[in-house]
Structures are given as structure tokens and as C-alpha cells.
Amino acid sequence: MIEKRKNISGITFFHQMPGEKRGQATCFEELPETKQDEVMDQLGPKGVRNLAKQLAIALVNYHELIGTITSEHTQRYAR
Hints:
Blueprint lengths: L11 E4 L8 E4 L5 H45 L2
Antiparallel strand pairs: 1-2
């Protein structure tokens, strides 16, 4: 069974997952570690620095979303 891509960061690279007939856009965080290493080697120092900044923004956005959901849940059920 092919696992559905989650597309958390939105930073995509083409990659063929096991069981797929062809590669498709895959978020950096969902790539196998060996493919992540390959991508970072190709990006070089400036590209890796930019990638880290983009991943940091995605992480902050994710945290804000989860914080909002958690806060709403807590307020709803704290009564």
C-alpha cells in the first residue's frame, strides 16, 4: 500500500516512493534520509541554509495551527 503524502512543509522534490510507477512531488521531510542527504549535497551551503529557514517557517506555522486547535479544544471542554 502506498502511503499518502502529507505535504507538511510544501518544500517539494521529485522522488519515486516504493510501489510507485513514477516519481512525484514529495516534501523534503517525507524523503528517505539518503535522498535528503543527496538533496542537501546538491543544494550546497547556501541552499541548505535557505532550506533550514523554510523548514523553520513551516514548523512555526504548524505549531501555531496546533496551538489554535488545542486552545479551542481546551476552551470547549473545560466547562
